[in-house]
Amino acid sequence: MDSAHSDHRSGRSDPTESFGASGASGAFAAEDPVGSVLALKILVAGGFGVGKTTLVGAVSEIRPLRTEERLTEVGRGVDDLDGVERKSTTTVAMDFGRITIREGLAVYLFGTPGQDRFWFLWDELAQGALGAVVLADTRRLTDCFPAVDFFEHRGIPFVVAVNRFAGAREFGPGEVAHALDLDAGTPVLLCDARHRSSGKEVLINLVEHAGRVRAARLLADAAPTGFG
């Protein structure tokens, strides 16, 4: 795999404990407005047609809220369908799903729109997020650059999850990390967005990564800066 750069770039624990520990300080959690549920917010981002809506729908315990519209002939001049020619709809606002971890603790999933004309929504969706999953398609890997840049520049922990499409050439996590020029320590995982178990594994890895990032930042803030 070529290192496709662009001008944009500059032992398993209990998953219940992982979700709870990361949001315990309140930095990434908020009270659910409809009840006394502590809600953790995770974004699912990536390029157009990469499988964000599929992933949210696969792991959500509720029927996911979707804001999809059919692609039109006018839109075909704007949306790049290379590699996803069968795609007939697109997310125009967000996808939303929910997972209950235990009583009083839930995870809310927000799938972001993939096309650049909807990027103005990302800042609003990212407020208060614990972290993000950046879905990747190795046939269109450069589509990941905007999402990777967005979360890196805002200091939001994220993992890259390579959605394994039938017929697509397979690359290892190290090759993908190199091609995307990821910061050291950013996890890269292989997944199948259609399967609940695969999606849950991605989310668990994200929460654990976000917890490590949070702990490192707290230690850095507490470290003495010098002698008086």
What can be said about this structure in brief?
The protein has helices at 15-23, 52-59, 122-126, 145-153, 173-180, 196-222, and strands at residues 29-31, 38-46, 68-70, 89-91, 95-102, 105-111, 131-136, 158-163, 188-191. With 228 residues, it is an alpha/beta fold.
What does this structure look like?
With 228 residues, the chain is an alpha/beta fold. It is 29% helix and 21% strand. Strands 1, 2, 5, 6, 7, 8 and 9 form a 7-stranded mixed beta sheet that branches. Strands 3-4 form a two-stranded antiparallel ribbon. The longest helix has 27 residues, at 196-222. The chain starts with 14 loop residues before the first helix and ends in a 6-residue tail after the last helix.
Keywords:
single chain; 228 residues; alpha/beta; seven-stranded mixed beta sheet; two-stranded antiparallel ribbon; 9 strands; 29% helix; globular
Which helices and strands appear, and what pairs or packs with what?
Layout: H1 15-23, E1 29-31, E2 38-46, H2 52-59, E3 68-70, E4 89-91, E5 95-102, E6 105-111, H3 122-126, E7 131-136, H4 145-153, E8 158-163, H5 173-180, E9 188-191, H6 196-222
Helix pairs in contact: 1-6, 2-6
